[in-house]
Specification:
It is built from five helices and no strands. By secondary structure, it is mainly α. It has a single domain, classed as Four Helix Bundle (Hemerythrin (Met), subunit A) (Up-down Bundle), CATH 1.20.120.
């Protein structure tokens, strides 16, 4: 059997390959969003744990571990908003990509506040820990207010 339309077959194969690549790229972008959401939930959970310590509902002995976890998590934030992950089930505002300098500044403030609470936690000083926790919360708001859409 001979093929009489090699161009047609080549065109069809090209379309299939491009289609598969597009689906794969979309899947990667969707996984970027899912990964980002997982990291942000981890940050929220860690904030909740530290908040319980501040309110006296959890042991101060966990302050070091939780604050160190927050510091390490803070270092991932700058990498979890890649280009093309501004679609689908996300609360990320377009301003993240439209105002990259402002976004990087907000992330830097969060990283600094997370590093500070990590350092303070080693002192065992609950008053200093509470102050550092409030500063950390303020840094979170510095990103959430301008760069995150409210819940629906």
């Amino acid at each position: 059997m001979t093929w009489k339309c090699p161009r047609t077959i080549l065109s069809a194969l090209t379309i299939v390959v491009i289609g598969v690549a597009s689906v794969s790229a979309h899947a990667d972008e969707a996984s970027d969003i899912k990964y980002r959401q997982t990291i942000m939930k981890s940050i929220g959970g860690t904030m909740g744990g530290m908040g319980a310590i501040v309110k006296g509902k959890a042991s101060q002995k966990h302050a070091v571990a939780l604050s160190h976890a927050m510091w390490r998590l803070s270092q991932t934030v700058k990498d979890i908003f890649p280009e093309g992950s501004d679609f689908g089930e996300t609360r990320a505002k377009p301003e993240i990509w439209q105002k990259p300098t402002e976004f990087k500044t907000a992330i830097s403030a969060f990283e600094k506040a997370a590093m500070t609470i990590s350092k303070v936690s080693h002192s065992g000083d609950s008053v200093a820990f509470t102050q550092a926790f409030k500063a950390l919360g303020k840094s979170c708001g510095g990103c959430h207010k301008p760069f995150r859409m409210p819940k629906k």
